[in-house]
Amino acid sequence: MTRLRDLGAAPGDLPTGAFNAITDVPGVRVGHVTLISGEGPLRPGEGPVRTGVTAILPHGGNLYRLKVPAGVRTINGFGKAAGFEQIRERGVIETPIILTNTLNVGRAADALVAYMLRQNPDIGITAGTVCPVVGECNDGFVNDLQGRHVGQTHVWQAIESAQGGPVAEGNVGAGTGTQCFQFKGGIGTASRRVLDGRFTVGALVQSNFGMRRDLLVLGAPIGKHFLDRCLPEPGPGSIMLVLATDAPFDARQLERLAMRAAFGLGRVGSIGQDDSGDFVIAFSTANPWPHYGLEQQPPDEVQAVTRWAESGPAMDECFKAAVESVEEAILNSMVAAHTLTGRDGNTLHAIPLDQLADLLRHYRRL
Asked: Which of 19-33, 285-299, 349-363 has the least mean pLDDT?
C-alpha cells in the first residue's frame, strides 16, 4: 500500500503518530469488510457488488457500558447519517461507528443494534435504548446500490475484526466503491501529535467527493492537469470524517474540533458542493462515562487539563492537528487506491502516482 509520504510529500508541520493513523490514539481500533463480486451489466438486487463496511471503535470494551464524549458537525447535509441528534443532545457515543453505502444505512443500523443487544441484553428492558451511529457515501457508480449487500454478518465481522496498528486504506471496507475528485478514493487516515507529544489527534475518512478541476495537493493545482484523462462521469458525492483524540475534551470542545475538519477539506480543494454530504464525528477516549452513574465527575486533574486546553494556544494546536490530519487522510485515500471497474463497465481510475510525483516536483512541493 502506497501512502502520500512514500512519494516524499509531507503535509503540515506537526509530527505524526507511530502509524500516522487514527489508531495512534490509544485504544482506537478499525475493522473493514470488503465485498467485491460479479462483473458486467447492472442487475439490481444481484450485482455487480463493489461495496463494504468499516467499523471504528473508540475502545475495545463495551461502548454501551462505557460511553465516550463526542461531538458532531454537519458541513453540508445532503446525506443519511444516523445517530447525530442524540450525540448533539447527550454528548456521548455508545456504539461502534459504522461506515457503509447510502442505501445500506438502515441495514447497518439494525445490525449494530442487534450487536449491542447481544452485548447488553438489558437494553430496551431496564437500561433504556441505544443510539446506533452510522455514516455513508454513495458508491452506486460501480456498485449495485439497490442490492444493499452489506448485512448483519458483515457489520459484526467489521466490529469483531477491528484492531489497532496500521490501517488498510484505499479500496477497502466502506471505501471499496467510492471516488475522490473523480479519481478512485476510499478510506484514508492520518494523525498528529500535539502539545509536545502529550496527546494525539487522528482522522479517518471515507472519501467520495469533489470535482477534478478543484483538486489541490499541498496547494498545487494538480487536478487541472488531468481534465482530459482518467475522468469518469461521477461528480460531487460525500465524505464521512471521523476524528479521535486522547485529549480530555468534553462534547462542546469536540464539536469545536469537528468544525475544523472543514478547513482540511478546503486544503484539498473541496467547496462543499450542493449535493455533497459532509459529516464529521469527533470523540475523545480520555474520559469515558459509565452508563450507570453518569453523575460521576471526572478527576480533578482531567478537569484541570480540560480547562487548560481552552487557553487558546493549546486548543489552536489541536485544531491545527485536525486540519492537517484530515488533509493527509483524504490524500492517502487517493494515493492508496487502485483502479476499479464495476457495474456496466464503469471505471474509477486511480491517480497516476508517477505523474503526481512529477507534478509535485514541478510545483516544488517535493
From this structure: 285-299
151 contacts 107 by C-beta, under 8 angstroms: yes
Q: Distance between CA atoms of 337 and 185, rounded to whole angstroms?
A: 6
Q: Distance between CA atoms of 252 and 274, rounded to whole angstroms? A: 27
Residue 288's SS3 state is coil
Retrieve residue 327's grid coordinates.
488533509
Only one residue has cell 471505471, namely 347
pLDDT 10s digits, 229-275: 877 766 668 999 999 999 999 999 999 999 999 999 999 999 988 88
C-alpha distances out from residue 36 to 2, 107, 143, 263, 359, Å: 21, 18, 9, 34, 33
SS3 209: coil
Beta-strand (E) ranges in the chain?
29-37, 49-57, 66-77, 92-93, 97-101, 133-137, 179-180, 183-184, 187-194, 199-208, 238-245, 277-284, 289-290, 340-341, 347-348
Q: Which helix (H) or strand (E) is 88 found in, with range? A: helix 84-90
> Per CATH, which fold does 4-355 belong to?
L-amino peptidase D-ALA esterase/amidase (3.60.70)
Of 311, 192, 306, 181, which Cα lies nearest the Cα of 243? Answer: 192
* Per-domain boundaries in the chain: 4-355
Give this prediction's pTM. Answer: 0.95
104 secondary structure, DSSP code:
G
Whole-angstrom CA distances from 332 to 9, 83, 207, 350, 352 are 11, 27, 10, 12, 13
Task: Summarize pLDDT for 141-170 with one digit per residue, the tens.
Answer: 999 999 999 999 999 999 999 999 999 999
| Residue 133: band (very low, low, confident or very high) from pLDDT cuts 50, 70, 90 | very high
Amino acid at 356: L
**Residues forming the active site:** 238, 276, 278
